[in-house]
Amino acid sequence: MFDYALTSANPMGYSITVLLAWLAASDGKISEEELECLTSASKAGSIQEKGIKQAILCAKNFDLSHINEACEIVKQLDTDHSLLFLELAIGLSLADGYLGNSELHVLLFFADLLDVPLKKLGALFTQVTSHSFPAPGDPSSMKWWHQREGRGQRQQSKDHTRSHNGRNTEQSQTSPPASAYATLGLEAGATIKEIQEAFRRLSKIHHPDRFHQLGEEAVAAATITYKRILTAYESFAIP
């Protein structure tokens, strides 16, 4: 099942793509933003279209043997490269603006695979998102499901509100979308200074040049995240 990686000139790059695809698909779907990130990363690493499709298909189908073999290759990363990989994974997990419980568990798995302590993962998460690493929920608990349903209802309400507000052209032109605040790790109503500081910090963390040591796939994935941060900042139209 892992023939492509074994015959590829870049097995590490392909394996990283497989694990990132698994992370993206762990919440039941791969969003357009996540797919763009994965496709750009694969093409940058000269991974053929066959390899891209194989990686995404295996991730969607939870092909355990394929994922395990990718893990065996990625776990060879040294400490510095492991931390860069985790930063990349955290950025991808937030590409669709939503961090699911399953994605949290995959991030924890990656940290364990790479021998990165939970405390260090939490520090990385805070550095990348400005928020504490949330405690993963327990899907076997009824309380967790009730809370999940409550979040879903609140999200539907927010979506309805955004849809209603979207009909007001003047408001849509003057108010940045809620997703822009979320991308910068801010609450709605943040000050200009807070927005500028968040942008400077995040653009430095996610700058593509930092990921050259992980290969062209990582650089391309980081570029997508960097552009998303830049787009969010520009929506505030700060002079």
TrEMBL record:
InterPro entries: DjlA_DnaK_co-chaperone, DnaJ_domain, J_dom_sf, TerB-like. Residues 135-178 are annotated as: Disordered. Residues 146-162 have a biased composition (Basic and acidic residues). Residues 166-177 have a biased composition (Polar residues). Residues 179-239 form the J domain. Coiled coil: none annotated. Pfam families: DnaJ. It comes from the Bacteria. This is Dna-J like membrane chaperone protein.
